[in-house]
Design a protein that fits this description.
The complex is a heterodimer of chains A (about 375) and B (about 525). Chain A is mainly alpha-helical. Chain A has 15 helices and no strands. Chain B has about 525 residues and is of the alpha/beta class. Classes of the chains: A mainly alpha (about 375), B alpha/beta (about 525).
Chain lengths: ~375, ~525
């Protein structure tokens, strides 16, 4: 909010650079342990991500769903909700979009618009369902979300193997390719759809504005920090919680629609591809600040696109990319925890102490 | 065990909370630590009990210098603290709570725990069920549990921080007897932290008075209260004028209302409250007064009867409709139910402004916050996070959040934990609202406060509500009888007299025409 102190250089240094160094030190240790040259490995990842326009396009394309889900989770985290059901919300978005692609016959522009809107609707419904389970079924959103993820996964497989199976028989490779109108146009021969990138960037701006500049954002923040106080002050907290879930679900559903329209051109069983869980790490990493999401998404995507090269050139497992990403998240959270601890030790944030007010008598 | 604190300094950022405090605690003595809010009492005691480390100064136990980096280390040296809000685990059983911190064995010795609870309970006449869930105990019982836990840990110096706030009168009597027994008969050193003169006067043998982080005097009791007040405040206390407001039309009308709850049911209560009237709710903690107050605000489900606000039917309406009807509810636990830690004052004012625009104008909100901060004398900035305000300032902030032109204002313990000065100020603000016709209903455990501030008082006992008493016609004694009237078990344990009087009083003062003020 307007009260946030301007981020000082030391803050950025401690909050971002220090954990990055720590995480790299950790992965370097692993690389040294398996007898590989760390520098060569990092260089390979970097080259793998940025050596050619094709690679850069792939990185950008991979950024899009991560960014959408990441900013979506900024909403639910702000409202104090652990929305781990993003995977399922991506899948439902993809399912709704696929239904549109397979059943409607529209010109490209309206087809894409319908698919994206349907995707948002599907994701929003699935997200709201987790919220409803929590509000009226007393199911904690973590369990509700995980459960719904499995339901969504099973639902997508059933659809692919039954109503939507290709004429020549169902396989794990998914449905028939969509009609041409349902393919999101790519940039020349590259695998990135400019429209998708624009949508993701707009989503970042919109979410950042909604959280900072509106009553809705303020109310979500309040109920996230203290549900009971916010309710007593008059925030319709249950309703706000549902809108937060639905909004996050809509963004995740949008990501699902984009994945099947721009990336695969069909519905596949693994349409979510673990993006939901990756976005969870991402949201934790940026501490729910939407404007940071695209940058971290870029980093995650680069590591993801770059690490298969480890396998080709160095005979290392590309899972190392996953290790790097997870290590960075853990390091950031650890450094954050340490800083809070030291700050408390220094007495700057004497919350636990019940701040004393020797000055109160003088001023009052 | 003799404990000496010498030259303790402790600062929090720019706030110098303890400025070189020296204090000696002798075994067998109840030592009072007196001072208004923010005088540095709690900080000093947290330094002594290992919750905080002093910036400088020394602590010595039996002449040996010690320094604690955690409460655990302090407990091992025999120093334990009872916090103002019990630091227990509400979801766990009494027995589990007692066993926590007890020994290093892999498997807890449950039998020993039960035995301990039984023996200690018998020694101090505490009746705690080992298998009861702590969340279901009253604050007084949780306090008893904490005392037993510290005793079972072998603590020899017990610090009690404002132990009499939030507990009932009989529980207080029980507590004082326990403390006297511990000090006089068993040689414990007791530190009694309080800002209540009468408690300190009743209980303590020695009193150290703090003001603004420094010792202003140490006296042997008995001692003149005027002198203590002077040490505490450095000035005499102002008295406040209650504006006399003629009550208007009925704003709140309850008829045959029954409020069921898991623990206790408030059955068939009715009252009419008129505009500008102040109603005090008395009773032991957990006698139904909070349930009643929350039901009046639409926060509890009502199973029968009807609630009307300004003649409009409100029974079973959602809380939002109550808010729209012009009510406000100020809870006792400020940080848990009232304010939102992590939001600053500006954000609070913007949040509380329910008619505010969808797009928040932060610079206007900031100006509004500045104005309210000035008006309510809050020591803080618009960008100050509420959790870094002191208790008194948090209470001011809560009041500052209330909009004007309310029809009904409900408050739980509006001045709990505040010093006399702050309490007077709070009441001045509250009573000023009567002039715009706001009726006030408040819960208090402080009988003097009830008598002084309320026009009429209703007493709750075991879920039953007495007929309203005119505050001018009743007395502390009478209220005491009514409060203890039906709570036989507590009352006899508290050693108070019990005769037929309590019932008679109810009949005597019951006056269908409602006493006028």
């Amino acid at each position: 909010m307007e009260s946030r102190a301007p981020a000082k250089l030391t803050n950025i240094l401690l909050g971002l650079v220090a954990p990055l160094v720590l995480a790299l030190a950790f992965t370097t240790l692993i690389l040294v342990a398996v007898g590989a040259s760390p520098w060569e490995a990092y260089w390979n990842i970097l080259l793998g991500a940025f050596e050619s326009p094709e690679k850069i396009a792939d990185v950008l394309a991979a950024c899009v769903p991560l960014t959408l889900c990441g900013v979506g989770m900024c909403i639910t985290f702000t409202a104090g909700q652990w929305n781990v059901g993003v995977e399922g919300q991506i899948i439902l978005g993809a399912i709704f979009a696929t239904w549109v692609a397979l059943n409607l016959d529209l010109p490209q522009a309206s087809m894409l618009a319908a698919m994206l809107l349907a995707g948002m609707l599907g994701g929003a419904l699935w997200g709201a369902l987790a919220g409803l389970l929590k509000a009226f079924g007393r199911v904690h959103e973590i369990f509700g979300g995980l459960g719904l993820n499995y339901v969504a996964q099973s639902l997508s497989i059933w659809l692919i193997f039954n109503p939507w199976k290709p004429a020549d028989g169902a396989t794990m490779s998914g449905t028939d390719p969509f009609p041409d109108a349902a393919w999101m146009p790519k940039l020349a021969h590259l695998r990135v759809a400019p429209l998708a990138v624009i949508i993701a960037l707009v989503a970042v701006g919109v979410v950042a504005f909604l959280l900072r500049g509106t009553r809705w954002g303020l109310e979500l923040k309040a109920m996230g920090k203290n549900f009971r106080s916010a309710s007593l002050i008059g925030v319709p907290a249950t309703w706000r919680m549902l809108t937060a879930f639905a909004a996050c679900g809509a963004l995740a559903g949008l990501a699902g629609a984009i994945r099947c329209s721009a990336r695969y051109g069909r519905m596949i069983p693994d349409i979510s591809g673990g993006q939901g869980y990756l976005a969870l790490l991402l949201a934790l990493l940026v501490a729910y600040r939407p404007l940071w999401v695209p940058f971290v998404a870029l980093f995650f995507a680069a590591v993801g696109v770059g690490s298969p090269r480890l396998e080709l050139n160095m005979h290392l497992d590309s899972a190392l990319g996953g290790v790097i990403r997870a290590a960075v998240v853990l390091a950031v959270m650890m450094v954050g925890g340490w800083r809070a601890l030291f700050a408390r030790r220094r007495g700057q944030k004497a919350l636990a102490a019940g701040p004393p007010t020797a000055t109160e008598g003088e001023v009052a | 065990m003799k404990v000496e604190l010498v030259g303790i300094h402790k600062s929090f950022g720019p706030v110098h909370a303890n400025r070189g405090i020296t204090l000696t605690l002798e075994p067998g003595t109840i030592h009072g630590l007196l001072g208004e809010n923010g005088a540095g009492k709690t900080t000093l005691m947290k330094c002594l009990s290992g919750y905080q480390t002093p910036d400088s100064g020394t602590i010595a136990v039996d002449g040996e210098r010690v320094s604690f980096s955690s409460p655990d280390e302090a407990i091992r040296r025999g120093i334990g603290m009872l916090h103002q809000d019990p630091l227990d685990f509400p979801q766990m059983r009494v027995l589990d709570n007692l066993m926590l911190g007890q020994g290093q064995r892999l498997r807890p010795d449950w039998r020993w725990g039960r035995q301990m609870l039984k023996e200690l309970g018998a020694r101090f006449q505490f009746d705690l069920d080992p298998d009861a869930e702590v969340a279901k105990l009253t604050v007084g019982e949780r306090q008893q549990l904490e005392i037993l836990r510290l005793l079972a840990l072998g603590v020899k110096t017990i610090i009690l921080d404002e132990p009499t706030t939030g507990i009932s009168a009989p529980q207080k009597v029980r507590l004082f007897e326990t403390l006297r027994q511990l000090a006089a008969d068993e040689g414990y050193a007791i530190v009694f932290v309080s800002h209540k003169l009468e408690d300190v006067e009743q209980l303590c043998q020695r009193v150290t008075v703090l003001r603004q982080g420094a010792v202003t005097g140490e006296v042997e009791m008995p001692c003149s209260l005027d002198y203590l007040v002077e040490l505490m405040f450095g000035r005499g206390l102002p008295t406040i004028e209650c504006p006399l407001v003629e009550p208007g039309a009925a704003v709140l009308d309850l008829d045959g209302v029954t409020i069921p709850s898991y623990r206790l049911t408030v059955a068939d209560v009715g009252i009419q409250v008129r505009a500008g009237e102040v109603i005090g709710l008395a009773g032991l903690e957990g006698s139904g007064q909070r349930l009643f107050l929350r039901a009046c605000a639409g926060l509890e489900r009502v199973s029968s009867g009807c609630i009307r606000i300004d003649s409009r039917e409100m029974t079973a309406a959602p809380y939002r409709r109550f808010l729209e009807a012009g009510i406000a509810y100020v809870p006792a636990s400020r940080m848990e139910e009232g304010l939102v830690p992590g939001l600053n004052l500006t954000e609070h004012f913007a949040l509380a402004d329910r008619q505010g625009p969808f797009f928040v104008d932060w610079s206007a909100s900031r100006r509004q916050a500045e104005a309210r901060i000035r008006e309510y004398n809050i020591v803080g900035e618009p960008a100050t996070f509420v959790e870094s305000l002191s208790g008194g300032n948090q209470q001011r902030a809560l009041l500052a959040l209330l909009r004007s032109g309310l029809r009904l204002l409900f408050l739980e313990h509006p001045t709990r934990g505040l010093d006399v000065d702050s309490a007077n100020w709070i009441w001045q603000q509250l009573l000023a609202r009567r002039e715009e016709g706001t009726a006030i209903l408040f819960i208090s455990a402080d009988l003097d406060e009830l008598l002084e501030r309320a026009d009429r008082i209703v007493v709750f006992s075991g879920g039953a509500m007495s007929a309203p008493l005119a505050a001018c016609d009743t007395s502390v004694e009478e209220l005491g009888y009514l409060i203890a009237g039906k709570a036989e078990a507590r009352e006899t344990r508290a050693g108070e007299t019990r005769d037929g009087k309590a019932r008679d009083v109810v009949v005597d003062v019951w006056n269908p025409g409602h006493p006028q003020n």
